Structures are given as structure tokens and as C-alpha cells.
Amino acid sequence: MLFASRPGRLLLCLLGSAVHGEQLDVSMMLNNSSTLAATPPRAPSILELYKATQPAPQDSFHMQPVRAIHARVQSDAPVFLEDQGLFVSKVGLPDFEAAYTSAMDTVNTASVEGALMYVQAEGINYNLRGDDQRCQRKYGMKYIVFYEVAVAQTNETLALYQDTADQNEYGPMVPMDLGRCAPVAAATDPQKAVLPKECYYFNGEDGTPNVGPFVGGESKELDVRAPYPDNVWFSFPHTCPTKTWADKTPACRASTRRGLCPPWTLPDGVRCTFAYRVLGFIAIDDVVGITSMVHSGTGRPYRNFTEFCEDGGVEMRATQDGVWEEGLAFWQDPQNETANAARAQHLVQAYQNLTDPLRSRGSTQIDAAVVARMLPLPSLEALAASNPPCYRNVARCNTGESCRRETFSQLCRVCAHTDDQGCTLAPRGFSFPRLARAVGADGSTGSADKTQQDADRKKKTKETPRPTTRSASPHWRHTLEVPLALASVAAALVINAARR
């Protein structure tokens, strides 16, 4: 099965359509009960390809790396380097390490299950764009890129957040903006912008405890415009996270801790906390069916969204609250969780079809040679089998309750019943260690208290702060400013703006 479901949640099957098919109808997706084709032969995972750091840390306990699949909405496509055998950002080329770093240099990602939420809520509503921008998606959204990540938090992260974390194994999600933590309103003066306290915890700055560059995670399921089940956003801080890309000096980078590991290196929670590789990507136009529709003038399939729009096509028009007015059948019923889950599953199937030589019809927007370098998404069963059981990394899974990993994000969740499928109890005699918190120069051990904004996100509301971000990297000197106005944060899905 594609998506693990929580108790009582409807588990939907995907349409087994090719990337290029007829315009897709959500009702057809909901009524289709066919199962997915067998997964292609398994490719080595990031846990097998990348190497552990040497020498290994000597502490008695360290979080075992967890493998997961995340997604990002981007305006530019990753570039495959034959010599390294990896996709990287085009920003930073021809320097391989610079291009590798650029793709995950203090950014946000989303769960695969929630990747389309950002597109749906912010990118395609005609009523939210002026006439001069009507025929381009907001921020130039063009691709969904799939990232295989490996995460190992610091011991100090687990010690501080294990009792309060929104997502087990993660710290709080920190919105990233221009390569740094996005400013928030000061508690004492709402008119004053300050960096969140967690941003200082990454390196113990300003006397705070040195918790380390933890990966954050937070549920974003409840946006009224696009409620997607299992939609979780993540933050990945790298070096010099209090500075924008333009202000990150070599000295600042050298004096702060690595979040992103060097290429081909697994995280250990000490020297670095995450690694990644790009599995592949798919054009949004292919997913929603635009490239299978025919131009009224030429009689040929549309090349892209702009051509479709200029021919009078409407991808989606909705009220500011997300109430449907008109658009492609693919986006119909945008406020329905079941319909949104079906859309997410179709995205996965479309990508699997694209990367399957026996089923793929290719893409008019992605070169066949590039598609040939892509890897399919692993099954949830394969992901779970490659990961440590939850009780080894999560203290609350050692209290007599069983836990299991769910979704492409491989999140540890407490099971409703200890004997539910995939649920694992800690073996007799195993006990989770008592981990020490970091202590700052000011004597504090940090605060994991929930803020009012954290509480408010539980409510179904679209009222959110609207900071800005710029999608680029420290190596690109001509970045385009890109304002993000989404849900309860900005830049959770970093969009790489068009680059020269």
C-alpha cells in the first residue's frame, strides 16, 4: 500500500494512469480501486550508498539515521552530474560541492503526502494573481522534486524536545527565509522582528544552549484552502543560519555547525544532522493533465501551463478561502481531505509511471536522458524495513506502548493497539537512555514551550504571518526576491526562482 493510514482514515488507491493521460477527474481517482503495479527492482538506499563518518562518536548513545522521502516545489529542475552520479542544484555549478550544498542550504521541505498543498493553496488560484501574472504560476512553480533524506538528531535535540515534539524524532519546524531563520514578531513588541529562539539554539549563540542544527517537523494538515492528510513540513538548517545567503561569509560558515553532511556522508548527530540525494522530479503540468490537452488553435498538446492559459484555460479559480469556482477537474473539490489524499496519491503514481521504462510515456518538459537517471520512490514497506524501530530513537515509544513508522516521511507514531500491523514494542530489558540537555553560557538549558502560534496552527485557519523569502543560494549573486505567503509559515516549500 502506498500510504500508511491512521486509525479510521480512508486509505485510497491510485489511478494507474501514465503521466500523459486524459484530463484527470478527482471522482475517477476516488472510485478507482486498482492497486499499484509491482515496484521496480530496488535501488540501493542512501543508507547503503553513503558512508558513516569516521571515527564514530564515542558517546554511549546516538540516534540512528532515519531514511525518509520528502518533496519540494521548485521552478528550476535539478541537474544530473554523470561523474558524481547525483542530481544537484544548478546554482553553484561547476563547483560540485557548492551545487550539492545549494539544494539544501537552510531550507524547508514537505512530506510527499502534502507536496501539492502548497501548489493548490498558493500557486494556482487565478483570483490571487493579477492580469499581468495570470499565465504563470506563483513563484514560477513548475516541478515537484523528490528528495531522499537521512536524519540523525543531536542528543541534545532529543533531550530538549522528546516530550513536546510535534513530530517524534524532530525538533520544532523553523521557517527558513533567504537561507536563514525567518524573523518573527517579538513577544515584547509585535512591531519588532526578531529571530526565533530556536535559531540561536542551532549553535548556542547569544549564550543559549548549543542544541545543534536539528531538523524540525510540524503538521500542516488543517489549512482550510487545501487540507491534506499527513501534510508535514520540515526545516533543515545548515551553517550560519542567522544570516541570509548573501551574508554568509566563509568565516561564519566555518564557525558554525554543519546541518548538511558532506557529499556521500551519513549524519551522526554530532558532525552533521542530515544528508540527501535527489531521486528525481516531475512536471506539475504533466501531473494535472495540461500537457495531454489540445490547443484550440494548433490542435497539438499544450507545451506548458503558460500556453494553456493564453489559450483561455483556467487551472483553478477559487475564493480566498479556497471555495471552488472553476478549473481543471484534477483540482476539483479542493477543500475535501479525501479528494486531496487522492491527488497526492496520483502525484506518486504519476512519478512512478514516469520512472518505469515499461510504463512511461515520457515528458515533453523533461529530457528522456534525464528521466533515465531518476529513481522510483521506494515502497513504504521498504522504507520501514531500512529504518531503525521507533523505540531506539523515541523515548515515548519505550513506555509500554508500541510505535510504527508511517508515510513517506517515516514518522514514528504511537499505535492504537500494540498488535496493530507494523507496530513494535521495545524488547524486554531495553531502556531508552536519559539524555543530558545542553547548557548555555547563561546557564539555561533551553525552552521547548509551545508558543501561541504553535497552538493556533491546530485551528483551521488561513490567517498567517506573511514573511518573504528568496530562492537562491549563497553562490548566486543575482537572486530574485520571492515573497512567500503561505499557511502558518513562509518558505516551507522553497521555490528556486528562475536563474540566468
Automatic annotation (TrEMBL):
Name of the featured protein: Uncharacterized protein
Signal peptide: 1-21
Keywords: Signal
Compositional bias (Basic and acidic residues): 451-465
Record's keyword annotation contains Signal: yes
Top-rank taxon: Eukaryota
Location of the region described as Disordered in the Swiss-Prot/TrEMBL record: 440-476
